[in-house]
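Researcher: Next entry in the queue.
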Amino acid sequence: MTPGLLTDRHRYWLLILPALAVMIIFYIWPLVNILGISVTEPEPGLGNYALLAESRPIQTSFIITFRVAAITTVFCLVLGYIVSYAIYNASKRGVGLMVALVLLPFWISVLIRSFSWIVLLGRSGLVNDALMGMGLIDRPLRLMHNEFGVLIAMVHVMLPFAVLPIMANMKGIDRSFVNAARGLGASEWTAFWQVYFPQTKPGVLSAALLVFVLSLGFYITPALLGGGRVLMISEYITYQIQEFLKWGTGTMLSVTLLVATGVVILAAARFVNLRRAFLERG
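Model: Structure for this entry, 282 residues:
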């Protein structure tokens, strides 16, 4: 082995060791500690994990979490595809404005956006006041502190995460394929469904994975709009640790959610090129 090769190898390790040390100290070690607490508090063993099969509230919380995440993903994909397709077909002057509107929510705190929905959906909110003012309802509708309000706010928060991957995928599609299909006699719908849409599937799958995984661990919006009645797993963890001081149960739920997220990502890897989805288009 030549000295030059050794030098290059040493330089390589000198470059990655700081990043590796940061990962170990700030990410891997805390996860190891969380795993350790989950099997040692309040007593050593797997008693905390047995609650997954025994505790109905925990099971209900997981069901709510996955249901809300799945419904949020479906609505975000439908709306995100429509928005992305509109941007794809917009004029050059309109594209910049539309992309800016998609990116605008990233410049506003999630907390502020969630409180805005409280102002809109509350019993004395703008929506109820408008409906009562038009004589459509006699008393305020219950638009929040339930899954309906949580879903509306979640879709609003997560929609940009669906638009960006789909839009990035559409930018790489050659318009000539659709034009050729139309020239050969295909209807507009046939050209879209059989020629254009299949080329956008990688972007749709990437958006679905991104939105679903982020929704699984979301906390602020479900906590504010759910009002404690739509208890997703992240809020349930907070209650266990802060209110009941059950560190073992809380860390067990954290580990379980992490494992469930990992399983979802591994399953999605069979259909989505994760490197291409999150690195090349990121």
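Model: The chain has two domains: 1-40, 49-279.
Researcher: Noted, moving on.
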